[in-house]
Write a structure and sequence with these properties.
The chain is of the alpha+beta class. The protein has helices at about 5-30, 45-50; strands spanning about 55, 60-65, 70, 75-80, 90-100, 105-110, 120-125, 130-140, 145-150.
């Protein structure tokens, strides 16, 4: 008699052989599966328009927003950008972008050295689960960003469709 370990090992080998034999038959079906789009794919044209091709770096921007929003009508968020806010180095413009809202640019806020701190606290509307991006344009023309995914249970921003 064979032990139970030997039986398990034999079954594992047979499953692998069977799977390997069927793989060529499954290849055409696998090729027809939709490809997963990378996060923020919907925002690429908007980001290109805002940045004019400049590099966007991920640092200096802190985005605080709940990862689970029960109500998409009023989602609280705070954005803070590390900047001395001096005439030589300050946040010129802060953009809030949403990946799946009918209008992806939620807000465009201007700052100046006299602002003191580059901080924004507000509430936004979100249509569905999506990524939210805070994009800061600095006085030297550079861009810094932060993004996070928000899951919305009760949707807002419905369009006519």
């Amino acid at each position: 008699m064979k032990t139970s370990d030997q039986n398990r090992q034999r079954r594992r080998v047979l499953k692998r052989l069977a799977g390997g034999a069927l793989l060529p038959l499954a290849a055409p079906a696998l090729a027809q599966l939709p490809t997963v789009r990378p996060p923020l794919a919907e925002l690429v044209p908007v980001l290109k328009e805002i940045t004019q091709g400049a590099q966007v770096r991920e640092a200096r921007v802190k985005l605080e927003i709940p990862h689970l929003a029960e109500n998409g009508h009023l989602v609280p968020l705070t954005v803070e950008v590390e900047s001395p806010m001096t005439p030589a180095d300050y946040v010129r413009t802060l953009y809030l972008l949403s990946e799946k809202n009918p209008r992806p640019v939620i807000a465009k806020i201007g700052f100046s050295p006299g602002t003191g701190r580059a901080v924004l606290t507000t509430r936004i509307r979100l249509a569905t689960a999506q990524n939210v991006v805070a994009l800061a344009q600095m006085s030297d023309g550079g861009f810094w960003a932060a993004s996070t995914e928000v899951i919305v249970t009760e949707t807002a921003c419905l369009d006519a469709t």
